[in-house]
Design goal:
The chain is mainly alpha-helical and about 80 residues long. The longest helix is centred in the first third of the chain and has 26 residues. It is rod-shaped, with a radius of gyration of 18 Å. It is a multi-pass membrane protein. Pfam families: PLDc_N (PF13396). It is found in: Cell membrane.
Length: about 80
């Protein structure tokens, strides 16, 4: 008989994955907030993508959003 107060391995795994996703979303929002290469409307759109599709939105921002903003900034300098 197992103790219902002690989490099982799958519960710990799901909790760890959930915490990693929350940390990823928070890091993405912080990165978005620090990026000054976008207009407020563009930042709002990115934020909505990150909130409503946390995994896909975060990955898209980290792969495309940051680079696009950096390239745009370097092109004007």
């Amino acid at each position: 008989m197992t103790n219902p107060l002690v989490p099982t391995h799958w519960e710990l795994t799901v909790t760890a994955i959930g915490l990693l996703l929350v940390v990823l979303a928070i890091a993405t929002v912080v990165s978005l907030a620090r990026n000054r290469n976008y207009t407020p409307v563009q930042r709002l759109l990115w934020l909505l993508v990150i909130i409503f599709a946390p995994i896909v939105g975060s990955v898209l921002w980290l792969l495309v959003g940051r680079r696009t903003g950096t390239q745009r900034h370097n092109a004007t300098a």
